[in-house]
């Protein structure tokens, strides 16, 4: 498979997420009312063409995109730990984005912007080729039943698209606690010719768990249930 700096004509009919309820707590609603207009945008409301990241952040800096920030437990800490990057979080779940803004507010971060909607649409239609320094996909929905594997986010077409949006030397970092999904991630990424496994020399090609990635309650639950956490870190060549 070859990635290029041209628009990747990826169209999909199956999405990797489920639409969930949008009822928010009082605190989440307040955070949404205070910050969304400034810090967030719906993917469907973006102007046609590439997102002007520098104008949105008011500065030029390395750009990190996290796909699926959930309730923001990890994301807020990662943003606070990297004030020198422009951090984009894309998530479909409105209360999760509101909770992330609430967490970010408490940590007094200013380098976070949020996008609500389909990450694939965002990447395909609003992210320029070679413009991202890192893409992070942490604990995506595993869709454990075999008949649902086609709904998993990490597929050959999505990885090709992500890779095309990374700059040379840019990083794709994945983590999951489902062994079958981890093996699928590794297989898909190894087949992408523009990606190189940073830890190819390690057993199985798995990356050591980065100590800077906060441990979430979901990760702790995985440990309690006997599931091993697998990290994979690839660079665009």
TrEMBL record:
Coiled-coil blocks: none
PROSITE patterns: SAM_MT_TRMB
EC number: 2.1.1.33
Keywords: Methyltransferase, S-adenosyl-L-methionine, Transferase, tRNA processing
Any one GO molecular-function label of the UniProt entry: tRNA (guanine(46)-N7)-methyltransferase activity
Database matches in CDD domains: AdoMet_MTases (cd02440)
Catalytic activity: guanosine(46) in tRNA + S-adenosyl-L-methionine = N(7)-methylguanosine(46) in tRNA + S-adenosyl-L-homocysteine
InterPro entries per UniProt: SAM-dependent_MTases_sf, tRNA_(Gua-N-7)_MeTrfase_Trmb, tRNA_methyltr_TrmB_bact
Biological pathway: tRNA modification; N(7)-methylguanine-tRNA biosynthesis
Amino acids binding S-adenosyl-L-methionine: 66, 91, 118, 141
HAMAP family for this protein: tRNA_methyltr_TrmB (MF_01057)
Role description: Catalyzes the formation of N(7)-methylguanine at position 46 (m7G46) in tRNA.
Protein name per its UniProtKB record: tRNA (guanine-N(7)-)-methyltransferase
Gene for this chain: trmB
């Amino acid at each position: 498979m070859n990635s290029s700096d041209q628009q990747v004509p990826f169209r999909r009919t199956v999405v990797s997420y489920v639409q969930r309820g949008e009822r928010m707590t009082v605190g989440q609603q307040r955070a949404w009312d205070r910050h969304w207009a400034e810090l967030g945008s719906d993917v469907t409301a973006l102007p046609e063409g590439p997102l002007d990241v520098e104008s949105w952040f008011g500065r030029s800096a390395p750009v990190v995109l996290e796909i699926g920030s959930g309730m923001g437990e990890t994301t807020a800490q990662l943003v606070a730990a990297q004030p020198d990057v422009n951090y984009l979080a894309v998530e479909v779940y409105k209360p999760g984005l509101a909770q992330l803004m609430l967490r970010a507010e408490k940590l007094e971060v200013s380098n976070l912007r949020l996008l609500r909607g389909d990450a694939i649409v965002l990447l395909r239609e609003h992210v320029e080729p070679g413009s991202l320094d890192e893409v992070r996909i942490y604990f995506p929905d595993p869709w454990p039943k075999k008949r649902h594997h086609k709904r998993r986010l990490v597929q050959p077409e999505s990885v090709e698209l992500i890779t095309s949006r990374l700059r040379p030397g840019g990083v794709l970092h994945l983590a999951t606690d489902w062994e079958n999904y981890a093996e699928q991630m590794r297989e898909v990424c190894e087949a992408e010719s523009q990606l190189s496994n940073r830890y190819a020399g390690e057993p199985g090609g798995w990356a050591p768990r980065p100590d800077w990635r906060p441990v979430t309650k979901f990760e702790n639950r995985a440990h309690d249930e006997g599931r091993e956490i697998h990290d994979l870190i690839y660079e665009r060549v």
